[in-house]
Amino acid sequence: MSDSDQILLTAGSILLVDWPSTDVPETLAGAGYAVFVKGGPEPDNYSRYGLHDGKVVGQRIDGPPTHADLVYSHRPVGELPAITAIARHVGATAVWAPIRAHKHGCS
Description:
CATH architecture: 3-Layer(aba) Sandwich
Number of strands: 8
Order of helices and strands: HEHEEEEHEEE
Shape: globular
Number of helices: 3
CATH class: Alpha Beta
Strand order of the largest sheet: 4-3-2-1-5-6
Radius of gyration: 14 Å
Number of domains: 1
Largest sheet: 6 strands, mixed
Mean pLDDT: 89
Oligomer: single chain
Structural class: alpha/beta
Strand content: 25-35%
Distance between the termini: 30 Å
CATH topology: Rossmann fold
């Protein structure tokens, strides 16, 4: 089993810092993860996604979660230091940051 598979298998909660489409938080919440979303640039702009009556719904929360096992980031590489600081704050054991290709190279 790969390290990434092990991380996903043992994670119960995931904090998302941006994502390519709403499919990401909806699919993760539908799979049973506790999903938290960092929205906007404001430091207290967070939501929680979960299942309610069989549908995935998002609800604004007052600040960052007290804990997340994994942080997923769909942001430019230059923002990783701030994102890893968030990950440390919530006690995450890993940061998942897919490298995005741009028309002028990778960022």
